[in-house]
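Ticket #4471: structure output looks truncated?

Reporter: J.K.
Steps to reproduce: submitted the chain below (331 residues) through the standard prediction queue, then opened the result file.
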Amino acid sequence: MTSWKKNPSSNMDLTVVVPAYNEAESLPELAEWIDRVCSGSSIGYEVIIIDDGSSDGTWEAVKRISVANSRVKGVRFRRNYGKAAALQTGFEAASGDVVITMDADLQDSPDEIPSLVKMIREEGYHVVSGWKKKRYDPFIKRTTSRLYNYTARKFSGIKLHDFNCGLKAYDGEVVKSIEVYGEMHRYIPMLVREAGFRNIGEKVVQHQARKYGVTKYGLDRFLKGYLDMLTISFITRFGKSPMHFFGSLGTLMFLAGFILAAYLGIRKLVFVSQNLRAPLVTDSPYFYIALAVMIIGSVFFVTGFLAELVNRRSPDRNRYLVKETLNVGRN
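Returned output as attached by the reporter:
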């Protein structure tokens, strides 16, 4: 993976990260709009456009824009890796004190940039997530988004109305402290909170109708969204100690199966002690249920044990985010 280091002497105010996939038509207008807003607000900025394996003229458009405006930089993927990979690459390359992400399709308004920067720099937010309160999307997309966001709020405990809004602002330290992978871009606020940054805010932002091209997302993204939510919830809660989950579940299942099997055995002994004809333990369906539950419980326990062994060999196991130090390293 390519890695960029921030220049300590840099006084860059803002980095705008723009993932782009087949957005050649909209990029020139977006770059001009960002420049007009930032220049008018005296914000020193850079724009990093990530061409996520586009098959149209997106990269050629990025090169033309960069020639006209040296603040615009570009990264081109060999193939389509997805939005999360594009954001992570942009975060690694960013040198701004504030980082703003926005989609390339002009549905996110750059006019929101000054107020977002102010919320990060002056109001002390670690992350500010956009909320497209009024959306220009089809009815089915609006409805499923509301259901999805309601579930995400209840599941995560983070009170945001629009987890998947592409327009977000971050403190520069935040983006260097998280790793976005898979399709976890939908749950960046959860990753941020797990990294120890608790001041998460929200701002109502303008949503614009798509001007060029077509949406790159289908209905399958909602199913993927719920699966990703389960994944990230598990990782944030049990990623450092998988035995707590698998071991606890396995132990409970094994004990439940053992108690049921013990009951069947004790019942047979009672019949025998009273000289009654005792039914065979194997004639009861509960015997096979008990046996299956004990086997599954054992498998869960062993899974947790193996996961702990793998986790202990992870180079990031003891990676902790230090906020500041006092007199550390002094003789």
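Triage note (M.O.): checked the attachment and the full token line is present. Residues 242-273 form the longest helix (32 residues).
Status: closed, working as intended.
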